[in-house]
TrEMBL record:
Species of origin: Bambusicola thoracicus (Chinese bamboo-partridge)
Region (Disordered): 1-28
Phylogenetic classification of the source organism: Eukaryota, Metazoa, Chordata, Craniata, Vertebrata
Transmembrane segments: 53-73
Annotated keywords: Coiled coil, Membrane, Mitochondrion, Mitochondrion inner membrane, Transmembrane, Transmembrane helix
Protein's membrane topology: Single-pass membrane protein
Biased composition (Basic and acidic residues): 13-28
One Gene Ontology biological process: mitochondrial respiratory chain complex IV assembly
Superkingdom classification of source: Eukaryota
Entries under InterPro entries matching the protein: Coa3, Coa3_CC
Entry keyword annotation includes Transmembrane helix: yes
Coiled-coil regions listed in the entry: 74-101
Keyword Transferase in annotation: no
Name of the featured protein: Cytochrome c oxidase assembly factor 3
Length: 104
C-alpha cells in the first residue's frame, strides 16, 4: 500500500487530516484536536479584532487631529480678519480726516 502523496514543499506535520475519518484515533485524541482547532479559530478572531481596533483608533486619531487643525486654522484666520478690519477702519478714519481737512 502506497503512502498518501504530500504536497511539494510541505512536510508531514503540515498534512491536514479529518479526525472523523482518520483510523486509529481515540475519542480523546479527536476531542483534543477539536479543542486545538477551536483555540486556533479563537486566536485568529482575536488577531482580526485587534487589527480592526488599531485601524479604528488610527481613524479616530486622524479625525481628531483634523478637527484640531481646522479649529486652529479657522481661529488664526479669524484673528487675521479682525486685525485687517481694524486696519481698514483706521485707514477710513484717516481718509475721512484728510477729506475734512482738505474741504476746510
Amino acid at each position: 500500500m502506497a503512502a498518501p502523496r504530500e504536497p511539494v514543499g510541505e512536510g508531514a506535520f503540515a498534512r491536514r487530516i479529518d479526525p472523523e475519518r482518520e483510523p486509529g484515533l481515540s475519542p480523546e485524541q479527536r476531542r483534543f484536536m477539536a479543542q486545538v482547532e477551536r483555540a486556533q479559530r479563537q486566536r485568529a478572531l482575536q488577531r482580526q479584532l485587534r487589527s480592526r481596533n488599531v485601524l479604528l483608533a488610527l481613524g479616530i486619531g486622524v479625525v481628531t487631529a483634523g478637527i484640531y487643525g481646522y479649529t486652529f486654522y479657522s481661529v488664526s484666520q479669524e484673528q487675521f480678519l479682525d486685525e485687517l478690519e481694524q486696519e481698514a477702519e483706521a485707514a477710513r478714519a484717516r481718509a475721512w480726516e484728510r477729506q475734512k481737512s482738505a474741504a476746510s
